[in-house]
């Protein structure tokens, strides 16, 4: 036991020395950055949490491209849209791999998550399958399911109106989870205490910790995984994570393919078999689960940040949204997707949510296959490339002098009807752009429109004092995803017409979602 430990420690020290002494073949300098110390580099300066805040300060001091050294590993932080697009999109053939995050990718996921795959044929096969069910055309076919769950969300919020307020997260998590579970597996999620939903949330929180660049010594030195379990506690945690995910995803996949109604599981299983793809059903089942992870994190958190904006960013944008909604929709029905062309301000709100509180403020790291040069600086081969979405989304040259404020108007042309073609960093770059962006925009749009049509949204009340709770608009978790900390908000109907319309729609659980799924399946036969 002790000899294994000593060997691992010796290997660690040798590895640090060798990596630190590596030299670039280029005579050009590295990008600027904070001054490193011998051997450890900038480890002592690495942010312990919420790295996007530190990276923004570094960008102000050192410029749009910053270099730091983490135990010999070069890390390049990109902080403007121009730089990120040039390297990650235009030079995508070089910059589309992922860093080897040993704990997340190999231990916790066994290499089966598209998010962390290198840009290989396996990745491209997974990507083609996802795009086939998530690009703009199929995403539009899902609008009836998204509308159904949005209507149920309005019903649930109305049922909990008044009093000191309601816990925000649960209702929105249930709605988004039900959309994606219905489409993937053919069944709805009817409560935010659903065991399957609770398990997905727990797994997402764990993975968000596993994927943090620089947070796990085993990522830098995988040899440490040879240590005995009591010295390597991450091994058991990662294995439990994988086994739990594997079991849940296979149970859901089995339920989906055995369902009578059309669903994405059945559709992609047939695609794999028809096209004779080299993808075992075990791998397909695991991949489908990643769609749930992405939807539940990104889509849910974006909607919750809208609520935070409603209670912390003043009433100006809410007043404008309601003027538009009342003029176009009136007060006799809820907004529907067919209203979208006539509701540009709602579309601007959706884009502002993505900018103001991007789901992944530090982005997902890339890795370059080759040494390259940009703007007179060398970027060594194998650098971890961090697209700092938080800072990119706050470029004053693009978004104005008030980037920390929630201002949907910045997305509209002077006519107030056309969206500006501003960059949306939240969905990634180039060959790693999120394939679920059309699905997410549609789901968020319908909820935003119906929510602002229906409710006055205020901070919840303190049980002790009866006064409104002070909500910090920056209070959030630390990890891959920027999630608002739990809080209460009050959703009160804007007027009697709201209850009348929502009651007319009623509880949607009696609605025949399987018929909707079969209609979607019929649309797919035409694609």
Automatic annotation (TrEMBL):
Q: Does the keyword Metal-binding apply?
A: yes
Is Phosphoprotein one of the keywords UniProt gives this record?
no
Say which domain of life the source belongs to.
Answer: Eukaryota
What Gene Ontology terms for biological process does this UniProt record contain? mycotoxin biosynthetic process
The organism that produces this protein has a lineage beginning with: Eukaryota, Fungi, Dikarya, Ascomycota, Pezizomycotina
- Matches recorded under PANTHER family: P450, PUTATIVE (EUROFUNG)-RELATED (PTHR46300:SF1), P450, PUTATIVE (EUROFUNG)-RELATED-RELATED (PTHR46300)
The name this protein goes by in its record: Cytochrome P450 1B1
The cofactor required is: heme
Q: Which InterPro entries match?
A: Cyt_P450, Cyt_P450_CS, Cyt_P450_E_grp-I, Cyt_P450_sf, Cytochrome_P450_fung
Q: Which SUPFAM superfamilies match?
A: Cytochrome P450
